[in-house]
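Convert to structure. Protein one:
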Amino acid sequence: MSDAVGFTSMAGARAEGDAPEIGIGMLGYAFMGKAHSNAFKKIPYLMYPPVAIPRLVAIAGRDEEAVAEAAKRYGYEGYYTDWRQMLENDDIDVFDNGGPNNVHAEPCIAAAGAGKHVFCEKPLARTAEEAKSMLDAVEKAGVKHMVAFNYRFVPAIVQARQIIESGALGRIFHFRASYLQEWIIDPEFPKVWRLDKSVAGSGALGDLGVHVIDLARFLVGEPTRTMAMMKTFIKERPLEDGSGRGMVDVDDAFTALLEFENGAMGTVEASRFCQGHKNYEVLEINGENGSIRFNLERLNELDVYWAGEEPRETRGFHNALISESYHPYWENWWPHGHMIGWEHSFVHEFNHLFDAIVNNKAIEPYGASFEDGYRNAVICDAISESAATGRSVDIKY
């Protein structure tokens, strides 16, 4: 007790048996570095009682000034300019790879070999072959492994899956999804790494399309065949260093047909050339008993239609606000109607990973493992092959 009347100090209140610490070592400090660090900080007091306490041990990046600033900003204990040195730190339990696509494979494979659990941003790899090497490495090491398909952890998406799993929607006939943005329409926008095949692997397909492909698998099942088109609208752009112009060798947009093993038909598309669309990911699923619609820009809502609902005069889509205490994850948040946002999908995602580590649970089926990342890459390769050949391509794992 302190001298203040009625005051009880909680200093040192953590007792033996409380949630264990999990040391985090993160590669990358930009967009995803911010999103991931934000989630780590929120988990201990929002996903309460926490299954684990993230300890921000170190962050790595090539630019020392930038990575030092990131370490200070996000609260990491230290930083490295070489991820290889970071992996030698025994305080790191989880390697979080938020770097560009060309630095997914080697660091993740090395981390698994060092006995670290591995979390990797999407897409898992630039090609299916590269993804398979990563899957083989984590399986050989026996570590937990997860790909950052964070939209699986949006409460409305989880609710949609639970509706489908219950059988209420009946047989699924259609899945259709679009992911549309506008940020590179200007022909003078520079050739950033996302427009370089050697770094990114692909364009809109690997950046945006992987999300809708993952949700297709998550909600409907495995696709077996695809027919696709891809397009590059602006084939030359200024180089970032001002030294001239460079060729764009990735897709600006793609559209693909999918056939699923359960007999459903699907369409998926993604583009970064859609004026007015900032981060417009929408999907619709049509079943024999009803339909479900979702829009990421209104992520706390789910539109549901039930066939045969009475009275028929008012039959139509219902807009359900997914914010009740009985909806997925909402016991950790606010009173109903007090909305959560995009950032909170990462809180749910990392909490799922930590639960799998601490309690030795499987990442799947609700989380995306490296197996899911590999299968996603196989589908992307099939889409690219179909677009290049003009033929339908069977999807084989």
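Protein two, convert as well:
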Amino acid sequence: MTSLLEVEDLYKSFGGIIAVDGASFSVDQGTVTGLIGPNGAGKTTTFNLISGFYEPDSGAIKYRGTDTQQIMRPSREEKGIWYGASGATFGGFALSAAAYYGLTSPMLAGATILGAGVGAAVYAGQERYKETAGYYHTRPFRLANEGLVRTFQITRELKGMTVLENMMLAKKGQSGENLLNAWFRQGAVAEEEAELQQEAYQMLEFLEIDHLANEEAGNLSGGQRKLVELGRVLMMEPDLILLDEPVAGVNPTLTRKLLERIRDLRADGYTFLIVEHDMEVIMNLSDTIIVMSEGKKLMEGVPSEVQSDKRVIDAYLGG
């Protein structure tokens, strides 16, 4: 199988506490991989490192063969915007200073151009310093745009918006996000929004919560919120989905529904990395299970191997 995610010798500490200590593993495309371990094993920290919310102290994370740090760096378009913004800011200061001292018009123009050049050079120097100093980028939205997305143990739905609006908001590349389109291409934006609304309804039907479409997300139960968060993730058309305790606090009926949806998605080619404390869930759902203990990978194998491994029993299952 093709490895969609590769974690290589990952290390992260907080003060004197080592949270992740040289962890290495991979996640194959089209599989469900479970990540388990006792409390404090480093599972959630590993999730936060993979998804770009934390910066690693050392090690590498590769998504589709590309280091996630490379993915999270500013794009050429972003750099162009920041070059322009820095140049305009410094140029504006230079113009104001030259006008204050009563310089002539040619001098004002020269000061503005010089200031803009200094501003652009300052930004360029800052970027070069980041590259040479080994600066770590923490920009999760860049990973999400590339198809690596996650949910959270405590859901982060937009409580004041309806379930349908939560779904629609997650879609990437909406033309209505562009101010000029919103002003001058209102018909095209409205047509796209109607199509998006239909797509969001179809997602809600797939999750069997379409009856909640017009309910405010803040009024839902914990299990319903988990389904909404999964739906928002799927609206982003991901390739790799990281689920952080997807059935924690969920009643048995909604748990079965959620697990059925995950199995359906796996059959459709989606890839999952799941942190979960419910051993019955993780053993029945996973193709491969990675066991962490004290920040390190203790072992890796299929569910039957993990269940019978004495190290796992001692460290986690309490046998």
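Residues 52 and 140 are 5 Å apart (CA to CA). The chain has three domains: 3-70+139-157+239-317, 76-132, 159-219.
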